[in-house]
Amino acid sequence: MTGAWAAMQRVFEERERQEIDEGRVARLAELAARVRELSELVILSQADEMEIAAVTREIELLTARLAAAGRGIPPSAEVGDGGVVRQLGSPVTGLLNTLAPPIEIRIGDDGTARSEFTLGLLYEGPPGFVHGGVSAMILDHLSGCAASANGTPGMTAGLDLRYRRPTPLGVPLSAEAKAVRVDGRKTFVDSRIIGPDGRATAEATAVFIMPTR
Amino acid sequence: MTGAWAAMQRVFEERERQEIDEGRVARLAELAARVRELSELVILSQADEMEIAAVTREIELLTARLAAAGRGIPPSAEVGDGGVVRQLGSPVTGLLNTLAPPIEIRIGDDGTARSEFTLGLLYEGPPGFVHGGVSAMILDHLSGCAASANGTPGMTAGLDLRYRRPTPLGVPLSAEAKAVRVDGRKTFVDSRIIGPDGRATAEATAVFIMPTR
Asked: Domain Thioesterase, which positions (chains A, B) (predicted)?
């Protein structure tokens, strides 16, 4: 585990040494946002087979155009508000990852990691509600940010989730996470997703273990 | 909770009553697959600002074409191998959801839900490894399938995850889940993700509660 951790840190550092062209990143973030809109239509569109096939060919051509310019390594972290390192390719927070909602995380003065977001059709589990696994993914990520904000980052060792009630789709949600206890190399983080009525829909306790150096 | 469950069941049934045109679904699945490839390039492409902007405009036009044909409701479940109901728009298994890897789930004779899959760059957490939240999402979903296969479906009440070691990106992984105990309205499901070396990278215990009728 220690070796894997050290190797990951080296790759993170290499990615962070990349020059980031903010103009290009803004354009790519815009492209990712438009691909998310396209993705909803892939589920809902009533287009006929011929039209779908035509759109598919166009997508292949656009992919080829993007590929023709060459492939880099995933864009390095940028430091956001409150000193949070943001991976641009992250499946949870990454502006350039079309899978990511993406959620934006801020760290409060008391070390609480917070985010507000609305999840649409692409994140649906039961009809009209957020997939429980998506809630798990967001709380996992937010908890990691809280452990880092606490100065005790580490590998996730455990995540214990309690689902209190369904999390509604398409309405403003918030989530928060805070390190509540450090015991040797272990950091415990409590987190929750909060619905529009102010009640927690899902709660979690995460445990992070700091690797030995 | 009971009211929400009943409402979800009604929507599922409405979606299942939709006529499914298998030819169209196959075309849409192909389109979703091509959008996943495009998505990787949004993270990696070295294209310049002008080229990115041009591709973005083309994506907008394609979205408009798909929208012009009208929007339906998310395509109904199709029954897969082993009687597993497959939501075509699911963020985990949905062939039409560009977020989904997608994973295909089979139910064995002993009721074990199994899947084999490879996760690429879009699912990255630590460099070279799967995001812990993605592992959580897959185990959450697979556990739900195992509870259903056991004849005791329900709302997820809890998911207790233990991360044993990092899960590698870009190599064949497998996952399995099985209902191990039913206690009144509660069903307990054990699950794990298994790396190429045969060792579990993440394990979970999920609890599902059957709503009262």
From this structure: 128-199
The token pair that represents B57 in the structure block = 């405009």
**How is residue B26 written in tokens?**
């196959």
pLDDT (tens digit per residue) in A107-139? 999 999 999 999 999 999 998 999 999 999 999
Residue A169 and residue A123: Cα distance in Å, rounded?
Answer: 8
Any residues with CB less than 8 A from the CB of A138 and at least 6 apart, and which? A92, A101, A103, A115, A117, A175, A193, B133
Per residue in A138-177, pLDDT (tens digit) is 999 999 999 999 999 999 999 999 999 999 999 999 999 9
Distance CA B195, CA B117 (A): 11
Under an 8 A CB cutoff, do A45 and B127 touch?
no
Residue A5 has a pLDDT of: 75
Q: How far apart are CA A69 and CA A90, in angstroms?
A: 22
The C-alpha of A139 sits at a distance from chain B's nearest C-alpha, in angstroms, of 8
- Its domain, for residue A131, covers 1-213
Contact with chain B for residue A208, Cβ under 8 A: no
Under an 8 A CB cutoff, do A43 and B92 touch?
Answer: no
Residues of chain B with pLDDT under 70: 1-2, 76-85, 213
B134 close to A (CB below 8 A): yes
CB contact under 8 A, A34 and B134: no
Residue pair B131/A137 in contact (Cβ under 8 Å)? The answer is: yes
Distance from CA of B153 to the nearest CA of A (A): 13
Tokens of A137: 């993914």
**Bridge partners (DSSP) listed for residue A174:** A116, A194
Q: Number of folded domains in chain A?
A: 1
Q: What is the CATH number of the domain that holds B199?
A: 3.10.129.10
Contacts of B196 (CB under 8 A, 6+ apart): B168, B171, B172, B173
